[in-house]
Specification:
The complex is a heterodimer.
Chain A: H1 7-23, H2 25-45, E1 53-59, H3 64-75, E2 79-84, H4 91-97, E3 102-106, H5 110-115, E4 119-127, H6 131-157, E5 163-170, H7 177-208, H8 211-216, H9 221-249, H10 259-284, H11 287-304, H12 317-323, H13 327-341, H14 345-374
Parallel strand pairs in A: 1-2, 1-3
Antiparallel strand pairs in A: 3-4
Helix pairs in contact in A: 1-9, 2-7, 2-9, 7-9, 7-10, 7-11, 7-13, 9-10, 9-14, 10-11, 10-13, 10-14, 13-14
Chain B: H1 2-7, H2 27-43, H3 45-65, E1 73-79, H4 84-95, E2 99-105, H5 108-117, E3 122-126, H6 130-136, E4 140-147, H7 151-176, E5 184-192, H8 199-230, H9 232-238, H10 243-271, H11 281-305, H12 309-325, H13 338-343, H14 348-362, H15 366-395
Parallel strand pairs in B: 1-2, 1-3
Antiparallel strand pairs in B: 3-4
The chains are: A alpha/beta, B alpha/beta.
């Protein structure tokens, strides 16, 4: 019954799927609108550079030294002094309400201790409720105090600093969050969109009972899978370009590398994630379940275990091992490398190879799962 | 049960308003609907696993993976000086616990290579003559190269390097002179509510918010649309079942599942992650109930508007993503542009997270949380009411 693979039949399936997709206006709008909206939202909203953290000061010393320490905090523009306390007890309600994130306590005799050359401790009370902001606020505070301390000591002795650290940021010179987020977002958004689009298409045939019809036709499983993939591959590639364009036009993310290499990596990554969607829907057969599985297996890992926002090196060993099979991890490294570092295949070839592997293995597994289903 | 159903008059399409519209809300029929829905939901063993497995996985991943504290930053050291002083500086960096040396080199090209390949996030260049400069007191310099592609780590790591280098400089310099090691201002930080500054304590309770929203939203949204897509909604419509009974039947099982998930997540948070529960469980439960109403209402609204499951799912995602981003779940609301801070006021997830974190971490009482609770109550009932209205309209 089944002859070899036929390109005509493959195209017929692709056409049918494209018509199906184009007819559903709302899904169509979402397939193009969602990635754009997500990039804009993420790019504008997510910011790791925290500024103007509200703080309170409890200055028990009231000397020139204590005042200039407070000035050092405000001058940094990382902190804004919103309250000046009279009693230590006032600190607690302020932190409780979340009105301030940090309370700087300067004890009496601060100036005297500092000028005598002994240790002069000051205390910082931090709202640890939000550990992320607290850590960043504490780091800023430490830096400000350390700089102040050096200045105070050197001012007394009039010598140059012993060791100066001269920092240079590479690839993202102004440390803009959007430059770091947009390349990573291409991977996260495409993973979700791709898996979603395809996971529903096969499950829908099951839900509506048209799968048996499809099975009765002389179409080869590989033709069905590739045919179903093609329209979505086009959608996905357009989405990638749209995201890239927004990154360039709105957020001014530089593109320093090879465009062709970028498209190649996206191509294989999309094939992999689209196949993953088909694999899911072939396995669970219901749209409702397919949606749930797709969310869990694509959204969460590509957001959290890919190095998109959180450094993989800081994770426990088990999660680091799991992250090795998260395709978004390789794609994000590749895209960041291409866009920000401007490095080419000579550096990124392992990641490119990972993409090709993900794409071909995913496609092969999808065809196999589908063939099994039909029998 | 079946007898009950037959007591309703059959629908007469030709005579306009069908007879069953006039019958009153029947608890027996609603209960049967709930039973049917629950059975349908739990019939698929895979579905049962999906209801309780993923929340647990999410909890574990968020508890362990999301960590903004920078430890073990991969560092490449380029020591062109080869003296005791330069080695002391490198040792000092690793001893701090923030940096792990993953490579050492001699030539400038080595550090470029390490950063290009992503083998290291930070490169420290100790130039030739470092020890000599230090000794003669003209001031020695080291160069710190930071990979800015992961801005978050870069930001924090950069701060730590500066600090450590400065402190080491003081120590190295002081060794030659009189022992003034303890001089200078010393900042002693103390974190409240979360003394060890564990990210998990902050993140894990918030996962509850995400899971309730996801479960309530997806189960409700898909349940009705599925009937419409498969064509069984018309059958339900011509049965004596009233729309209100249908709604109860469709929403109660998701409510039960979401509640079970909430209990599961809270238990794991308290006993596995040692998240302190400092406030009252009653406030947490009431807040969760109001929040659940929001999720169900939104789910119902989507299902009233969507024609296919694919459409419902895409719309769900369209709501869900911004709600999570604008909730303060991972990115503090206070850091967002002011316009988005205003927008986030319309986001139930934001208010719920304030309740959850307040109750868990700060032990906040109703006097601190009444505003959020009131907003959630109004939003929940409002959304549900609106959804039911829309639902009546579309199902006719």
């Amino acid at each position: 019954m089944r002859s070899g693979l036929s390109f005509t039949r493959l195209l017929a399936v692709a056409r049918k799927e494209a018509i199906h997709f184009l007819r559903d206006r709302r899904s169509l709008g979402l397939a193009f609108g969602l990635p754009a909206a997500m990039v804009l939202a993420f790019g504008w909203i997510i910011s790791f550079d925290i500024r103007f953290i509200p703080m309170a000061v409890f200055d028990q010393d009231r000397t020139q030294a204590s005042r200039s320490l407070v000035d050092a905090f405000t001058a940094s523009s990382y902190f804004v002094v919103t309250d000046r306390l009279e009693r230590y007890g006032d600190a607690e309600p302020l932190l409780n309400r979340g009105a301030v994130r940090l309370v700087l306590v300067i004890p009496p005799r601060f100036q005297a201790r500092l000028s005598s050359g002994g240790p002069a401790p000051v205390q910082a009370l931090v709202d640890g409720g939000d550990a992320n902001t607290a850590i960043i606020a504490m780091t800023y505070a430490r830096g400000i105090v350390a700089a102040y301390s050096t200045r105070a000591l050197l001012g007394a002795r009039r010598v140059a600093p012993r060791v100066g650290a001269e920092t240079r940021i590479w690839y993202n010179e102004r440390l803009k969050s959007s430059h770091m987020i947009v390349p990573g977002l291409i991977a996260v958004v495409m993973m979700i969109i791709a898996a979603l689009l395809t996971s529903l298409t096969v499950a829908r045939e099951w839900d509506r009972g048209t799968m048996e019809q499809l099975a009765a036709t002389p179409v080869h499983p590989a033709e069905v899978i590739v045919g179903k993939l093609l329209p979505y591959l086009v959608v996905g590639l357009i989405d990638v370009l749209v995201i890239g364009f927004i990154g360039d036009a709105v957020f001014r993310v530089p593109f320093r590398g090879n465009f062709l290499f970028f498209i190649g990596a996206s191509f294989f990554f999309l094939i992999g994630s689209l196949s993953l969607g088909i694999l899911i829907s072939a396995a669970v057969r219901s749209q409702m379940l397919a949606v749930q599985v797709a969310m869990i297996s694509t959204f969460l890992p590509s957001l959290l275990l890919s190095g998109f926002m959180f450094d993989i090196a800081n994770m426990p060993k088990v999660l680091q091992a799991i992250s090795l099979v998260v395709p978004a991890r390789y794609f994000i490294t590749a895209v960041r490398g291409i866009m920000l570092k401007g490095v080419g295949p000579d550096v990124l070839w392992p990641h490119g190879l990972g993409m090709i592997l993900f794409g071909t293995v995913g496609l092969a597994l999808a065809v196999r799962a589908f063939r099994k289903e039909l029998r | 049960m079946s007898g009950d159903r037959r007591t309703g008059a059959p629908a007469h399409r030709s005579t306009g308003e069908p007879a069953y519209r006039r019958t009153r809300f029947s608890f027996a029929r609603a209960f049967e609907m709930v039973r049917k829905e629950t059975r349908q939901l739990f019939r698929n063993p895979m579905m049962v696993r999906m209801m309780f497995g993923p929340p647990l996985i999410q909890l574990l991943v968020f508890g362990y993976a999301v960590n903004t504290d920078i430890r073990n930053t991969r560092t490449f050291i380029l020591d062109q000086d080869h003296t005791a002083a330069s080695r002391g500086l490198a040792d000092g960096l690793t001893a701090s616990g923030y940096f792990v040396v993953t490579g050492r080199g001699e030539r400038a090209a080595d550090v470029t290579r390490a950063l290009d390949h992503g083998d290291a996030t930070i490169g420290i260049v100790i130039p030739h003559g470092f020890a000599a400069d230090l000794a003669c007191g003209t001031g020695a310099r080291v160069q710190v190269l930071v990979d800015g592609t992961s801005a978050n780590s870069a930001n924090v790591a950069q701060g730590y390097v500066g600090l450590i280098v400065q402190r080491l400089g003081q120590q190295l310099g002081a060794a030659g002179e009189r022992g003034s090691g303890g001089a200078g201002v010393d900042l002693r930080a103390r974190a409240w509510f979360n003394p060890d500054l564990r990210s998990a304590v902050y993140n894990v309770p918030a996962v509850a918010g995400m899971i309730i929203m996801l479960m309530g939203l997806s189960l409700t949204a898909m349940a009705v649309v599925r009937e419409r897509e498969v064509g069984t909604l018309e059958q339900l419509m011509v049965s004596p079942l009233q729309p209100s009974e249908l709604i109860v039947g469709k929403t109660l099982p998701p409510v039960i599942v979401a509640t079970a998930d909430l209990v599961l997540v809270t238990t794991v948070a308290i006993f596995w992650f040692d998240v302190p529960l400092r406030g009252s469980i009653l406030i947490l439960a009431t807040g969760s109930l109001f929040f659940l109403l929001c999720a169900i209402g939104l789910g119902l609204l989507i299902s009233a508007l969507a024609n296919t499951q694919q459409e419902a799912f895409m719309s769900m995602f369209f709501f869900f993503m911004p709600m999570i981003i604008l909730s303060g779940f991972m990115f503090p609301v206070a850091n967002m542009p002011v316009a988005f801070q205003w927008v986030s006021l319309a986001n139930p997830v934001r208010h719920y997270l304030e309740v959850v974190r307040g109750v868990f971490l700060k032990g906040a009482g109703i006097e601190a949380l009444w505003k959020q609770m009131a907003v959630l109550a109004v939003m929940g009932t409002g959304l549900l009411w609106f959804a039911v209205l829309r639902f009546h309209k579309t199902s006719r």
